[in-house]
Protein 1
Amino acid sequence: METVQGEGGLHTAPRPWLARIRELADATGTLVIVDDIQAGCGRTGTFFSFEDTPELRPDLVCLSKSLSGMGLPMAALLIRPETDRWAPGEHNGTFRGHNLAFVADSAALDHRTDPHFTAHAAELATAIRTSLASITDALPAGVAEAVGKGAMSGLRFTDAATAAGVRQALFRAGVLAETSGLGHVLKLLPPLTMSLTDWKEVADILGDTVLTTVLDVPALAPRAPAARCGCSPTPPPPTGPCA
């Protein structure tokens, strides 16, 4: 299970629910496996997405994606010693043995344990949630809801068309975002290294875009493309016969 669903729409499992999962697993002899491939590696504010629920105590944890620190192919499966029954070499997969990924991951792990980095990640997570709350407060009740956790957050709209319209308008403004769930959730995955100043710029563009798209209010004066976001610098829109 994911404690924060990525493609499922940024649903965040409540702590009591996760604690109950552990109780049921213990009672039935079932293993608890947490999929932290998207939500792990600091994305939710802590390295593992479930650190604020110590009662969960997963038996296995899956990690990948940002694990290597720079998008190189790497994955890992963490197993409690009492559960590990594999002999050396039995655990294999397509993301094994990439030497550069191992070097990059080692450097990334050192960076993630830097107190300055972890403090910044926590500040960024707070800024994101504050910005999203401000946007939803400016909308009529029920139009949108801030969802997710940390730097894996977004806005849940009542329909997919609205989320798609906001996403497309953001792209034109130079901000990359995606949709998830049933297409009705706008998902933001800003880099953990993003400065608070850059996030403020993105949040302002997001707020203007949501108001313009949802309430059909006149857009504010055009901004220079943010070329940030939810992800990475955005190339200019294509032109010519291939546009």
Note: Strands lie at 33-35, 60-63, 76-79, 144-149, 152-157, 175-176, 178-180, 185-188, 228-229.
Protein 2
Amino acid sequence: MEMVSGSSGAETGSAPSARAAGVARLARLASGLGLGDRSGVCVEAFGAMTGSWGTATAAQLAESDVSSDGSPMEFAIGLDDDPALQFAVEALRPGDCPVDRVDSARATMAGLVRRYGTDERRWAQVADLYLPEKPATEHVAMFGAEVRRQGDAQFKVWFYPAVGGPERAAELCERGLAAVGLGAAWPAVTAHMARGERLDRPVMFSLDLSADPEARVKLYFRHYATDADGLAELMAPYPGFAAAPVRRFCGTMLPEAVADLSAQPPVTCLSFTGARPAAVGGATVYLPMWTYAPDDEAVRRRMKAALAACDRSSGLYERALREVASRPPAAGRGIHNYVAWRPGPGRPRLKAYFSPELRHTDPRARYALDGQE
């Protein structure tokens, strides 16, 4: 497979700033995905979310939680009939600490409100809960934007419920739901943590930063000591899911780990809306790809097989991989962060999450069972 020429700044020793690297990848991705006329929208949104970085390189910023190698950004491509380009970043600045990151997160949100009129109602309802003066986590917030062929950039934020201490993560999720008027969703959340919050751990609380009645609140969970059968059983109750397709997806993407997903735990997500506060509006499975497959070329072959099983072309995915990669896929692993799968009204939907590898290739496993989030 032909790759973009050149190598990452981490390899050359002459790295561009993290913002410049992100802008370059976004422009290429937008063009490769047929969103070339939306490149300016992508770049402007990216700039609005990364002001705290200044001119720092990725190496001059703290190791981020956004991508598996610690890069402070991630790109995601919705592989369906209306392709979407999503990008996520962490609000960091050179030499900062978690207390500083709280300030950076608040400043980033304030900037989005000033520039875009981003809806801040639900943010205001939970900001003090998830952005305390003395956070117990290294990371406190990530911001994201999604751009499609039509419409404005859509923003979202992810918070870390362990920010008050890992033992309080579930409590802060419950309080967050109540604060945004979704307290009725809590029974569905506790059902999803059937093995307890240590093994079915709530790790992220996200908000669509929109006034739309269908704007989502999402909770993300990391599942420890499980396998493909356990993941299939967990997801079977949700609309459109069935155990057999989940097992097949795991078998296609992680054949070496079907019987044991403990090296790098999978993630699931439940979404809720104010229109139906007690009901799970959607569920998604995320499989981590940077620790199981031998290299990114193996992941590429598996992605093509997964797309074919959904009766979808791999062309969009191949173009995205070509534009985001800075090396041949067979030369290591770490370009692919996660692959997401969820049933659709017709065919299942897949989304690929990519790291720009601004720090290094072959990232280590993360999120040990007893480690703090």
Note: The chain has a mean pLDDT of 93.
